[in-house]
Design brief:
- There is one protein chain.
- It is built from 12 helices and 7 strands.
- By secondary structure, the chain is α/β, with parallel strands linked by helices.
- The strands form 2 sheets. The chain has a 5-stranded mixed β-sheet with strand order 5-4-3-6-7. A two-stranded antiparallel sheet has the order 1-2.
- Strand 6 and strand 7 form a beta hairpin.
- Helix 6 packs parallel to helix 8, helix 7 packs antiparallel against helix 8 and helix 10 packs antiparallel against helix 12.
- The longest helix is centred in the N-terminal third of the chain and has 20 residues.
- The termini are far apart.
Amino acid sequence: MTEATDSDGWELEPGDEQGAAVIALVGRLLKARREALGLRVPELASAMGYGEGLVYKVESGKRIPRPEFLDKAEEVLDAGGLITGLKGDVAEVRYPKRVRDIAAMEAQAVELTAYWNHNLHGLLQTPEYAQALISMWRPTLTREQIERGVAGRAARKSVFERDPAPSLSFIQEEVTLRRPIGGKMVLRRQLEHLLDIGQLPHVEIQVMPTDREDHSGMSGEMEVLKFRDGTAIGRCHGLYAARPVSDAKQLRVIELRCGIIRAQALPPGESLVFIEQVLGEL
């Protein structure tokens, strides 16, 4: 039997207390059920078809197990649904804490406005585009980190399926539509995806043409999320050390910039025509 590899599960991020608590619970449950049946770790590993090292790591809370590992453990240990009942919690903590925090805010927002200038906003990215983008980060990430990053962005897409739907406005710099991240075929599918999303009634995609003389977004990316209770969170790369802010005066500045750049960019209808033209040039 081979030892566990990165493809058998995910590493916990340092400082991820929520993730550590969930995985520790899974480990304790797995170990308690195994011992109740009088099985040693090598016997359980053999019955499940996994390496002993992985079972030890999961039981000790050092490894995030994959869904198929939990299914097999449930089957072999006849756990009465106790193990598979934690699959949802495990699936959530497999994503980096920063991604979970972003997803939690997006899941609660009733309105989102975002300007992105170097690549497409994470909510707009196809899996192929996201993988190509994350793969080019430096220092180079591990296969596991890339996989988790792509999965995390895919999980955030649930915001498009909410009912009632939030109002989503994206302003994208023209260059983000032309840079062939992942190659021309990946870009082609990405542009087609933008055209599909842009047809949704609660989504507006605007393009900021490169030839615009007036541009209120020269300081970098910015984003504002508004919530049902009237509160909001904003972030701008050129302001407040790029950290999220909720102070009313600071938010007003970011909202002002977002409002101006929306007026400076192409309207949504013209933007979709622009994206079609870029697609036709590929």
